[in-house]
Amino acid sequence: MRNIFYYLIAMLFALVSCDKDMPETQEIDATLAGEELTKVDLAAKKMKTTVVGTGIAAQDVAAVQNAVDNYNHVTLSGTFDFGSDETTGGVDINRENVIVQGPATILNGAKTVLTPELGSVRYPISIRAPGVEIRKLTLSGEFEAVLIYAQEDGKPVILEENNITASVAGFAASATPGGIKVIDNVTEALFGYLSLFSKGHTELVNNDITAAFDGVYMFDFNHRLDIVGNTFNSIGFTGIWIGAWSVSNQTDPEYGDNAPIRVIDNTFEMASKEFAAGIMIGASDYGINNVLVKGNTLTGEAGYGGLMKQPYGHNNIFIDNDLTGLTTYSPQIWILGGRNSHFKNNTLGMVEPFWLDSWAPAFNDAATLVSPINWHEKDFLNTPDPVHFGNHISNNDYTMTGVTGWSEDPESVGAVLLLDFLQKFDNGFTGEGPFQESFVMENFITENKFPSGTDVCNQVLDLNPGTNQIAGWKACLAKTNKSDKQWVKQRYENFGQIIKEKHQKREKIYKERKNKKM
Asked: For the chain, percent helix, then strand, then coil, each to nearest 5?
């Protein structure tokens, strides 16, 4: 599928008669799709055409394919049915700079292609060339809606003002070095935007991504990415989950690099008590750098957390995000590794005890959790231990979290917890189970906005031997009860097993949901 056939538009235009009476706009009824092109048709390649839907799959697909093969500006009108045939049930746009626009409705579509990057994809429309634009279409189907898979460089692909309902992905993208612009669309799908191994600057701007398990799911890329001004409604896992470079089988946990990424001014409504996370950067085996997460608003309920920084990656900034409308049953902020990142001026929401009694309180012990984790040291992914130093946690507002501070009460919850061990997993392959190793962090904490009547002395708990720099900590030493540290440390002896079980359950539900949709 990597070979793209370009028509020699300019040469064809020069070879045919320049008849002054040649129409500038052609209208193709789906019933004429099988007729052979005339010289006048060939001369009209640079002109416009309109295709009217019939609701008959064989006729509609053939008519639209004929139009995108032979015209640069195609207007679709009415309702089309692309059917469910895996060989013929979709249209491929193979020429660059073709514009397809509505208003029109396309139902169904299941043309199937196997790609190395995305696996099997079933779609009504695929884009195989740069510069293609899809505008003002309503698509409703059972699989992916639009496949973006251009191999050649050129102008960016543009998808604007479309309304999409799909079971798997609204947009599925890979390759496309010319870039992709997704603007002002409405999607309802398991993945609003799914991308693996893309190659060009991607812009997701002002989209409404609803009923998503993962609003944006994007991995294996090294280009600029802008996610700006979108609205996410997540009923499953994440609003945004992105990772740039794999650390599997690497020895240096911070070896990778990627271009700057912006996640700015988005709004998230989360709706999953167990597993949801608002913005997650990196993964258990992926790192990411140079991400600016700024000015986002998160509301609703999230079992996993609000802002999550996974173990690998550096130079990331989480700043000025508003989580006051978000209730979490885990920490609002997770910092699981990496270096030289900043978590600053974020306003946090309520932290509640975990709601399901059959699960021990797994993650509800702090509003901000700072804990290094190696998820895959002894399994086939073979990930290295992360680093955890040079990170700055400062001026975040905990006044609405409800955390009362650390005390001898075993149910107490504090604002910040810095663990002194590295949690490791083997996923059952060696029989050892999860285990812990001593780990020393060197980070900087400057926090002073706590619930009334509390301060840094009872809201920040550091289990490390004095290596973290905590503003105001020296003044607390005189009144710190060493036994407080000991019982909290004991509470976390089983932390690894609990977090592993939650992680595995999340993955199981995700796979079951995806397999059901597939």
From this structure: 15, 40, 45
